[in-house]
Amino acid sequence: MRMWMVDPRLLCNKHLVAEHGEIHKHRHNFVKGHSIQGRISPVVQIEPLSMKQRHDDLVKEMIKRNMNHKSPYTQPDLSHYDKDLISVKVDLFVSLKDLCKRCEDCKERIKTVNCCRSSVGKMHSRYE
Ligand SMILES: [Zn+2]
Ligand SMILES: [Zn+2]
To answer: What is the number of the ligand closest to the CA of 69?
Structure first.
């Protein structure tokens, strides 16, 4: 599971759908209280506290691209986790770098939005 947390407009269709799907798919792990250590160290790959918000942001972009969405998401109860574990933040520059490395389609989108830095800044303040 990896939450990229970058502006959803920067994701290609594949990565948009994948991030949305993973948020759904891994919900039960949080409900059951499975360890998330491997997801936040050495690289923070998820933001447990932002899952519902992130899901809804991804859905908004999916609908804009005429994709179907019929799977509402409820934020899982995270009270059994340590506060420090669940309040981690994804480094958006690492996400952008990894997306560019892995995916030509995302790379094109990230390149064309050359206000990358300001959209990164916006995203940070939105989830805080
Ligand atoms: Zn959904
Ligand atoms: Zn992509």
So the answer is: 1
Residue type, 21: G
CA 66 from centre of chain? 20
For 52-83, what is each residue's pLDDT tens digit?
Answer: 999 999 999 999 999 999 989 999 999 999 99
pTM of this structure: 0.87
Closest ligand to the CA of 12: 2
Kindly give the distance from the C-alpha atom of residue 103 to the centroid of ligand 2, in angstroms, as a whole number. Answer: 5
All structural domains of the chain, each given as residue ranges with its CATH number in brackets, are 8-126 (1.10.440)
Residue 32's nearest CA partner among 74, 84, 87, 81 is 81
